Automatic annotation (TrEMBL):
Keywords: ATP-binding, Cell membrane, Membrane, Nucleotide-binding, Transmembrane, Transmembrane helix. The lineage of its organism: Bacteria, Bacillati, Bacillota, Bacilli, Bacillales. The keyword Plastid does not apply. It comes from the Bacteria. It is found in: Cell membrane. Its main location: membrane. GO terms for cellular component: plasma membrane. This is Inner-membrane translocator. The chain holds residues 348 to 602 of 606 of the full protein. GO terms for molecular function: ATP binding; ATP hydrolysis activity; branched-chain amino acid transmembrane transporter activity.
């Protein structure tokens, strides 16, 4: 329901990397329950925006708000702990741990921010431990990872590693999920599993920012899109309007 206040807002966000303006005054709103597609050619600033929202890089100017809190330039562990969970273009699983172990770690939001190593002993009650195991099995069923439960993640096909990355993020019980090119390098079968996972997140009312180049995949999932080109907003609206938008067509055709 879009009538609500947005859960996440960026206002006039600018990001400079030593002389290069990667984002130039980006304002986005993410509403509860929606999937917002974030698209644009390579180097247009999509990952940078996710890196700013998740506190990986400091912003040059502008503001980021989450549930009425100003989270501008808060540290990544603070942001993850509040429930803004992101995945990376290159999966951040622990290669020498099994799928199940990686998913169990996922439940710890702080782990998602990458600041805790897997050697840290998370304190949980026995009941919490049991609930966690049930959730992990559910997610493994949904994404058909059960078959790989006891395999070391590093030995699995790349597409499966990417699905583990997304499944792990879901187990952190995000309030917002930021997915950076989750479909890249996936086979058709793996893509179907990923779509199942994303639909599951949406069915639970969790809003998603979905970055991807795969237009059919994006179109099948998103409610709206926001298009970047060279750090500038060139379109915001529905997919239909996007396909007819002159600036978008030019950005993609390189005219
Ligand atoms: P996208 O994800 O849309 O492909 P990025 O956000 O990764 O684009 O990059 C946007 C621009 O910012 C590119 O020109 C890229 O080279 C630059 N950039 C991204 N991260 C860094 C960094 N850590 N240091 C310097 N430049 C960067
Ligand atoms: Mg990127």
């Amino acid at each position: 329901n879009r009538s609500n206040q947005p859960i996440l807002t960026t206002t006039n966000v600018i990001k400079d990397f030593s002389g290069l303006r990667a984002l130039n005054g980006i304002s986005i709103k993410l509403y509860r329950g929606e999937i917002l597609g974030l698209i644009g050619p390579n180097g247009s600033g999509k990952s940078t925006l996710v890196n700013l929202i998740s506190g990986i890089y400091p912003i040059t100017s502008g503001k980021i708000s989450f549930e009425d809190h100003d989270i501008t330039n808060k540290q990544s562990h603070y942001i993850a702990n509040r429930g803004i969970i992101r995945t990376f273009q290159d999966p951040h699983n622990v290669a020498n741990m099994t799928v199940r172990e990686n998913l169990l770690l996922g439940n710890h939001r702080l782990y998602q921010s990458g600041i805790l190593s897997c050697t840290i002993n998370f304190k949980r009650s026995l009941v919490e431990e049991q609930e966690m195991l049930v959730k992990v099995e559910q997610i493994m069923d949904l994404s058909e990872l059960a078959h790989y439960a006891d395999d070391q993640v590093g030995n699995l096909p790349y597409g499966i590693q990417r699905i583990v990355e997304v499944a792990r993020a879901i187990l952190a019980e995000p309030k917002i999920l930021l997915l950076d090119e989750p479909a890249a390098g996936l086979s058709e079968t793996e893509l179907k599993l990923l779509i199942q996972l994303i639909r599951y997140v949406k069915s639970r009312g969790i809003p998603i920012v979905l970055i991807d180049h795969h237009m059919e995949f994006v179109a099948s999932l998103v409610d709206r899109v926001f298009v970047l080109d060279s750090g500038e907003e060139i379109y915001s609206g529905d997919m239909k309007g996007m396909k007819q938008n002159k600036q978008v067509i030019e950005a993609y055709l390189g005219v």
